[in-house]
Specification:
The protein is α/β, with parallel strands linked by helices and 413 residues long. Helices cover 32% and strands 27% of the residues. It contains twelve helices and 20 strands. Strands 4, 6, 7, 8, 14, 15, 16, 17 and 18 form a nine-stranded mixed beta sheet that branches. The longest helix is centred in the C-terminal third of the chain and has 17 residues, at 379-395. The radius of gyration is 21 Å and the shape is globular.
Length: 413
């Protein structure tokens, strides 16, 4: 007899949502992670349920602006060139997906799953009693220059074609919503239906507590290996070997470390993201505000003002890049006026596939192993619906939305 119906590897938003959905369905579930729930990449995000974020990071503008992005002294992108030379295929595949036809395909895949995001997350928010953590003031994106605004015009038109609601704003209207902004404003967009989260880690912690209250099991240990066989899968978690009907690999950027899962053979890369916290400064903005040219968000949250974002292409093992933190602090002051010294800083690892799409589906070598990682900038937003899909697959059900585009064995360029 098997120990569990499902073992979940990883207790970020994707893994915790998967565990809670599966337990709600009546499956026996073990959730494993060496760290406390929600303490990894899910902790450090921009706190935004970004249901409008259907445009991939790798889009045609990357190719147009690549020299400026890579070599400019004031760029939101940083590349470790030694890492890039060690991973040329990933870098070239990422750039290949910036072609217009590929970018359009990726955007349509993201729009399809994004349309189900709230249906996946809202039941878990209710189940966890986390409604008080959710804010409904929307999100605002700001452009300082005409060139940047015009460069993103196609993305706005695509969102409009997908029925994503937003209001376009002039400088005066933007300042009426956010009078604390000090940067030049050419134009802005208010995604008025978007929501934000006061404290993402607390939301995940509440989901975890509800999972335990429903009879779910928790083991604070790393899963190092899986071994699939005809009727199930053997999972090595810490010093224990556990027999389960299914296992889901939801370990984010660390998914490739699980031997035998199939994830080690996929082109999973890492976008390193940073944030700064300024206690006592959350009044600077009243909702998440993204500065397009700056490549980061200013977010009011429980701990204070969080400035979060930018992209660093580098390995998991590289030390904190102080230049990235200095960039965010400098740009934050341009955006909001003088700021005190930050209270804390953070580095996290966004799990990124070269086509900017998550991996959701059965491992190529076994239907007993389910992959659920690679959500890049959208883990918080898509964690709930990914968890519901995982529960469907663990039950042998067909999800009520197409997921073939997220299959691990898909074409990546």
């Amino acid at each position: 007899m098997q120990d569990f119906d499902l073992v979940v590897v990883g207790a970020g938003i994707v893994g915790t949502a998967s565990a809670l959905w599966a337990r709600k369905r009546g499956l026996s579930v073990l959730l494993c992670d060496p760290n406390p729930p929600g303490s990894g990449t899910s902790f450090g995000n921009a706190c935004t349920l970004a249901t409008y974020a259907v445009m991939p990071v790798n889009n045609p503008s990357i190719l147009r602006n690549l020299p400026k992005l890579m070599f400019g002294s004031d760029s939101p992108l940083s590349v470790d060139y030694l890492h890039a030379m060690r991973n040329p295929l990933w870098m070239l595949t990422f750039l290949a997906n910036c072609r217009p036809a590929r970018a359009d395909h990726i955007a349509r895949q993201l729009a399809d799953i994004m349309g189900h995001a709230e249906a996946g997350l809202n039941p878990l928010i209710t189940e966890a009693g986390a409604e008080d953590l959710i804010h409904t003031r929307g999100q605002m994106s700001v452009w300082s220059t005409r060139a940047a605004a015009e460069g993103d015009r196609a993305g706005l038109e695509f969102r409009k074609s997908q029925g994503i609601p937003f209001h376009e704003l002039g400088p005066e209207e933007a300042l009426a919503l956010e009078p604390g902004l000090k940067l030049p404003i050419h134009s802005a967009v208010h995604y008025h239906a978007a929501r934000s989260i006061e404290d993402p880690q607390e939301m995940i912690a509440r989901m975890h507590r509800r999972f335990l209250a429903l009879g779910g099991q928790w083991k604070q240990a790393a899963v190092t290996e899986t071994r699939a066989y005809t009727g199930g899968v053997e999972v090595t978690c810490g010093e224990d070997r556990i027999d389960a009907a299914h296992v889901v690999i939801a370990a984010g950027a660390h998914a490739k470390s699980v031997r035998g899962s199939g994830a080690e053979h996929l082109p999973l890369g890492t976008e390193r993201g940073y944030h700064l916290i300024f206690e006592g400064e959350k009044h600077r903005v009243t909702r998440p505000v993204g500065w397009a040219e700056g490549g980061f968000y200013a977010v009011p949250m429980a701990q204070g003002l969080r400035l979060a974002g930018t992209v660093e292409i580098a390995s998991l093992r590289k030390r904190v890049n102080q230049g990235r933190l200095a960039y965010i602090a400098r740009k934050g002051a341009e955006m909001l006026g003088p700021l005190p010294e930050p209270t804390s800083h953070w580095l996290g690892f966004r799990p990124t596939m070269p086509d900017s799409l998550p991996v959701i589906g059965h491992a190529p070598h076994s239907d007993r192993i389910i992959h659920a990682f690679g959500h890049q900038h959208l883990g918080l937003t898509l964690g709930g619906i990914t968890g519901r899909i995982v529960a469907d697959l663990a039950e042998g059900r067909q999800p009520n939305l197409p997921i073939a585009g997220f299959a691990p064995n898909r074409r990546y360029a």
